[in-house]
Amino acid sequence: MPDRYANYTRLSFDRPHPRVLRITMGEGQERPNPVDAVMHRELGDVWRDIDADQDVNAVIITGAGRAFSAGGDFAMIEQIMADFDALARVWKEARDLVYNIINCSKPVVSAMRGPAVGAGLVCGLLADVSIASKDARIIDGHTRLGVAAGDHSVIVWPLLCGLAKAKYYLLLCDAVSGAEAERIGLISLAVDDAELDAKALEIATRLAEGAQSAIRWTKYALNNWLRMAGPSFDASLALEFMGFSGPEANEGLASHKEKRRPSFPPSSPV
Predict the structure, then answer these.
(1) Global pTM?
(2) d(CA 235, CA 154)
(3) What radius of gyration do the chain's Cα atoms show?
(4) Which residues pair with 11 in a beta bridge?
(5) Would you kindly state where each structural domain of the chain is located, as residue ranges?
(6) Phi/psi at 252 (nearest 5 deg)?
(7) Helix/strand/coil (H, E, C) string of the chain?
């Protein structure tokens, strides 16, 4: 690997094809791919390094083991609720993650199995070709945590599956299987789990061996739909992080840690 990837500790890299870079989230971690503070930063930074890497034509992003991404680390959430500097830093990282993957010129293929939640899901659904195993569980859990649906949710879910389905899943936090996600247009393809890695590599290889300027310029032009939704994304991210200072986030986090249903305040001043 080039030196530009040497300092990443939560992401591992290999080349299953000379022009394809595969990113694996959480290799060697004890829990199934929690996005702690280090991984959160790395997921934002890596797309700039890939964009500058002349040896990469296409990217695969996947998770180690049986989980694509298990969501945010409780310690990181507690820190941003208690420390304004941490909140401001993580807000910037979350913004950079979305815009950096959108602006990365190289096509990205995601291969999702098991739970796909949190910052990892940002990469999974903003990928140019998103693939999941049929029994994967895609969950945007923001409102269950007691904060507005930020991250990638508002910028891309309505474009992928329509406003009605986006509202249903983002307001209620229901899980979407890989098979259902393909049916409603939330992802590109759903395949049997045994076929997932091979299908991702097949598509990434086709992209890596194709006409590079044509592919990259097509991605750039198509992603103007996402850039036009930038103000909606910026608002959603600001509202999400404002929510971390309120009582709903306190109760949402406590209920997750105690493995119980949340008991949110019965009304809101807004």
Answers:
(1) 0.94
(2) 9
(3) 18
(4) 25
(5) 3-258
(6) -60, -45
(7) CCHHHCCCCCEEEEEEECCEEEEEECCCCCCCCCECHHHHHHHHHHHHHHHHCCCCCEEEEEECCCCCEECECHHHHHHHHHCHHHHHHHHHHHHHHHHHHHHCCCCEEEEECCEEEHHHHHHHHHCCEEEEECCCEECCCHHHHCCCCCCCHHHHHHHHHCHHHHHHHHHHCCCEEHHHHHHHCCCCEEECHHHHHHHHHHHHHHHHCCCHHHHHHHHHHHCHHHHHCHHHHHHHHHHHHHHCCCHHHHHHHHHHHHCCCCCCCCCCCC
* 3-258, CATH topology level: 2-enoyl-CoA Hydratase; Chain A, domain 1 (3.90.226)
Confidence band (pLDDT; 50, 70, 90) for 31?
A: low
Question: To the nearest whole percent, how much of the chain has pLDDT over 90?
Answer: 89
- For 159-183, what is each residue's pLDDT tens digit? 999 999 999 999 999 999 999 999 9
